[in-house]
Design a protein that fits this description.
The chain is 68% helix and 0% strand. By secondary structure, the protein is mainly α. It is globular. InterPro entries: DNA_glycosylase. Keywords: Endonuclease, Hydrolase, Nuclease. This is Endonuclease. GO terms for molecular function: endonuclease activity.
Length: 231
């Protein structure tokens, strides 16, 4: 008996969808294995919902949002923390030159003087408004806009912060912004945040976001992921 055309087409469509899901899963596995390390982890931040790690993530977000290589921003963050400037109180009370020197030690020289000022002013603001604890900001509405009140944090910096913080602030998950969707398109993954979020467990969303940002910024990284997924 000949299979009706409608049933035949439906079975073919189902087969294509299953094949697409398998392909997307393979790409995501390769992405997480090769480039799924969060920027916070690279900077030595063990991210938790406590004041010091959240403040360090804010500092890192400021550094990453400048037009400078990501590895330089990460190195500068590590240098600041190694210099004892890993909490809002220490940053606010430090001398401007000490901040400049730490940024320079991390290779962050192009914007070091301006950034040193922004770090000091931002730490003062955090202490005055939230007693040094960004969890107070979390409890307010318009978190992205409030993050942008800190000197040096614009829309890009707020996106960076929330992409990484969604692991400890789950109410913002899935936070897969324009940059992550650019990476998804480069890998021919689903374009919508909701569909992307279905590809990983919730706890892996920060790693997925970081990996997608890396391939958005680096065509070679994207090619590497695609080659690994097909191997």
């Amino acid at each position: 008996m000949t299979e009706p055309g409608g049933e035949r087409n439906a079975r073919a469509d189902a087969g294509r969808r299953a094949g697409s899901r398998e392909r997307d899963a393979a790409v995501v596995r390769a992405l997480l294995e090769l480039h799924g390390r969060t920027y916070a982890r690279e900077a030595g931040i063990r991210l938790r919902n406590t004041p010091v790690p959240l403040y360090r993530l804010l500092v890192l977000s400021l550094l990453l949002s400048a037009r400078i290589r990501a590895d330089t921003a990460v190195s500068a963050a590590r240098a600041l923390f190694d210099a004892g400037l890993g909490d809002a109180r220490s940053m606010a009370e430090s001398a401007w030159q000490r901040r400049v020197d730490a940024l320079g030690a991390g290779g962050y020289r192009r914007y070091d003087e301006r950034t040193a000022t922004q770090l000091g002013d931002g730490a003062e603001l955090l202490l005055q408004r939230y007693r040094g604890d960004l969890r107070g900001l979390r409890e307010e509405s318009g978190v992205s806009e409030r993050l942008q009140r800190f000197p040096g944090i614009g829309p890009t910096g707020a996106d960076i912060f929330l992409r990484e913080a969604q692991g400890v602030w789950p109410e913002f998950a899935p936070y897969l912004d324009r940059r992550t969707r650019e990476g998804a398109r480069r890998l021919e993954l689903p374009a919508s945040s909701r569909e992307l979020a279905r590809l990983v467990p919730r706890e892996e969303l920060p790693r997925l976001a970081a990996g997608l940002v890396r391939v958005a910024l680096d065509r070679k990284a994207a090619d590497e992921v695609l080659a690994a997924a097909e191997a």
